[in-house]
Structures are given as C-alpha cells and as structure tokens.
Amino acid sequence: MDHGPLQTTSEPGIVNVVIDHPPTNLMDGSLLMGLRGLLDTIEGDPSVRVVVFRSADPDFFVMHGDVELLAGLRPAPAPVREANLAAATLERLATAPFVSIGLLDGAARGGGCELLCAMDVRFGTERAVVSQPEVAMGIVPGAGGTARWPRLVGRSRALDILLTGRDIGAAELLALGWLHALGPSESMANEAAAFAARIARIPAASVAAVKRVVSASLAGIDTALVAESNELGRLLASGAHQAPMRRFLRAGGQTRHGETTRMEALVEAMFESPDVP
Fold first, then answer.
1. 38: which residues sit within 8 A by CB, 6+ positions away?
2. Superfamily of domain 2-201+217-271
3. Apex CA 55: angle with CA 12 and CA 229, to 5°?
4. Contact 12, 170 (CB under 8 A)
5. Cα–Cα distance between 26 and 259 in angstroms, integer?
6. How far is CA 176 from CA 34, 126, 127, 173, 267, in A?
7. Does residue 71 contact residue 249 with C-beta atoms inside 8 Å?
8. Residues with Cβ < 8 Å from 123, sequence gap 6 or more?
9. 164 CA to centre of own chain
C-alpha cells in the first residue's frame, strides 16, 4: 500500500515504510499528506506494533521543508491556540500507539530532522548527519523541533543545536543519545529489524500503554508546540526570513549538489546579512 511518497509493506506486527519522494525527498505538503494518510490507516489497527521508516534516497532521509515556499510566506501575526499542520502531524506520529523507528543513512535537516525527532527510536550509520538551520533563515524549527530537542538531549545541548544550525554527525548523535545505535548500513538495518521484531511480539495494548505513561512523565509538549507555532508565525509575518532564505537558494540550497557537498557554506551564506543586528 502506498500513501503518496510513502511506500509500505507489512509483516506480522510491523509496517515498513520507504520514503521515496524524488528528486530530493523534500519535506513538503505531499509528504505530509502521505504521512497523515498512513496514520489514518494504521493508528487504529491493533495488529500494528512497530512502524519502521527508511529512505529510498542515497543522500537524504528527508531533506527539509520547502524553502522556496516558506520564503514567500508572510502571514498575519495572529496568535494561534493549536500547533500548525506539520507540527500536529508529527505529534500524531509521536503519540501513536505503535513504536516508530527511523533508519538514518544520510542527511536529515530541518523538517527531515524534526520527523526523526518525532519518532520513538533512531538507528544510524556513519553517514548520518542532522541539523536545524532554521534560525539562520530568520525563523525557528516549526514542526516540533524547538519543542522536542530539549526533551531529547537537554536544554543546553538543544540551544547549541537550535542556535548554531551546525551539522551534527553520527558519533555525536550517538553520544547525545539521539541515536539508539550506530553501525554499518547492513548491520544497522539488521539490528533495527531485530529490535522491531522483538517489540512486534508484545501485546499491542501494552505497547500503547507504555508509550502513554512515558509521554505523561514528560508532559507539556502541547503547550510548547503552540508556543513554537506562534513564534514561527510571528517571524514569518515579519518578513525577516525572506532575505536569508533567498541567499540560501542562490548559494545552491535545496539542490542535491549543494546540500551534499557544501552545507556549511550554505548556512554561512544565510548569516551574511547587513540587516541582522
């Protein structure tokens, strides 16, 4: 069964999802709608204990949000009481009754990183790299990243990651505990499969109950997501994001070559602005 860019296969207790959204696995409306459709299908299916996500793209798990689209947005800065569509969709994944596992072999920046942050467990290879470059663009990570990173790695590490926009490699991600395990591609996939198979043997009600209690122990994410959505809306309304996002695109952002060979330069290009105080 396919849900737009998400191709799925099933085995007892497990749904395997391949993200295949050429040319670069961009986190856009099509991918989000595919994820929502997948969740609509499997959230209420008690036979599903585990969902494993991997990418068909050799370079990107998921690239990031559509900067060309975001650069043109300037909504009215009206406060909201609910998280935006992207944040709400990823929160559905985070609170789903099944365990979600991400296999990262390549890059996941911006929205792609936020998608992985919303998953329960992450496995990676030595090629794994993530970042949140949104602040350099004049906004904040607005699909849950600003709210989730402190929960995953603590406040000071989160501030480092969110405010520098730097690439974080596999070894550091493992040391931070963000990655559950790290290894060569084949062994990583095998270890993730064994982990999924073990959970798939557990009664679905127990899996869901454990997730609910763990989430309750952390509490407060809804308020944080609404605060994040308000901050994102305010920054978009100001228009301050448009110039750095245009510089990002002119420097080669949102292209395979640019983001596989010179991501640090792309981030630096966004900082090169006389209008940043």
1. 3, 6, 8, 17
2. 2-enoyl-CoA Hydratase; Chain A, domain 1 (3.90.226.10)
3. 100
4. no
5. 12
6. 30, 15, 16, 5, 23
7. yes
8. 101, 102, 103, 104, 179, 180, 181, 182, 183, 188, 189, 191, 192, 195
9. 17
C-alpha angle 62-66-71 in degrees, rounded to nearest 5? 150
214: its two tokens: 């763990």
Instruction: Give the type of residue at 130.
Output: V
Residue matched to tokens 């009664």: 203
Q: Which of 132, 123, 129 is nearest to 103 (CA)?
A: 123
14-19 and 2-3 strand pairing:
unpaired
What would the two tokens of residue 93 be? 């994944």
Question: What is the pLDDT tens value at each position of the chain, 277 positions in all?
Answer: 789 999 999 999 999 999 999 999 999 999 999 999 999 999 989 999 999 999 999 999 999 999 988 888 888 778 888 999 999 999 999 999 999 999 999 999 999 999 999 999 999 999 999 999 999 998 999 999 999 999 999 999 999 999 999 999 999 999 999 999 999 988 999 999 999 999 998 888 888 988 888 887 887 788 888 888 888 888 899 888 999 999 999 999 999 999 999 998 998 898 765 444 3
